[in-house]
From TrEMBL:
InterPro entries: ACP_syn_III_N, Thiolase-like. GO terms for biological process: fatty acid biosynthetic process; secondary metabolite biosynthetic process. Residues 116-184 form the Beta-ketoacyl-[acyl-carrier-protein] synthase III N-terminal domain. This is 3-oxoacyl-[acyl-carrier-protein] synthase-3. GO terms for molecular function: 3-oxoacyl-[acyl-carrier-protein] synthase activity. Gene3D superfamilies: 3.40.47.10. It comes from Kibdelosporangium aridum.
Amino acid sequence: MSPDAHIVSTGTALPGEPVDNEAIARRFGTDVASAEAFIGTRQRHFAVDLNTGQVTHTLTDLGAQACAQAMARADLEPRDVDFLVLGTSSPDALVPATVNLIADRLGIDQVSTYQLQSGCAGALQALDLACRLLDEEHLIGLVVGADVCVKHLVLDRNTNSVGRTGHVLFGAGDGAGAAVLASELVPGSIAVRRVLNRFSELSRTPGQVVRWFGAADLAHPEQPVEQDHKAIAQRVPLLARQAMREVLGMTGWYQASVSYLLPPQLPGRVPQHVANELGLADVTEISCVADVGNAGNALPFLQLDLLRDRILAKERAVAIAIEPSKWIKAAVTLEGM
């Protein structure tokens, strides 16, 4: 990757008003106390109306909103953008690629576009690719992480999977985040020092599966989402420790020099297990999953947006994302400029 990659600005987009746990309990008949103890999310945003099932926001809507905000903060016009990279697990369609719909919405033309379909680690995979794309001809890029996870769920209270639906909804959330990446140093930007992106756990069973149903499957409205919560709780903290150790080694940093940690944003007790595994005592944690839910690839950029207002010059941060669908560990070292 280029040694001169800088996050100049960030942008976020969350659909609609926040939906609290009581609203989900009323809609699906789920017990609030047990779900909160299991999930740990207080509220989230959905791109559909839970009562009608009507789609209120597409991935294109959210991605374009986040990008527009990031561009405005960096004082950029569409003609200033040299490439666009999107990481998502929930594109609007198989084709056309959602990244191109976002570019079209923004008025960005005649540039390279890339779409990575991946789970929780997709945002950092997109950042990794964007850093590698920066060169003397490509000076400014847009990187987007976005998901509309709720569209994968069967929102029918009368199905025999109501309990599972309710619990998943307690932790799920939709949203988008974006960052303007530049090769030129801008005062107040965040330097991207190193990005780790590793497929891991060879031959291990996936911890999460999201099926893409076709027309032939519509007669069988089963939940398309499956999660092995036990495997996730066991493996994510271990992979986070590996990712932290590897990315710090790549950067040449000591753990004690890190001021901020952007941990994997999984619901439930997993974040606490991660913190215990990493053994970080004097580090400020940048977390938002309790307030926005598990918004997939949006989360690392939502965390970056929070970090942008806190990190000072020479302060260091590490962001980690672990994807349990087929066990990918990703991390990035960041430094205030």
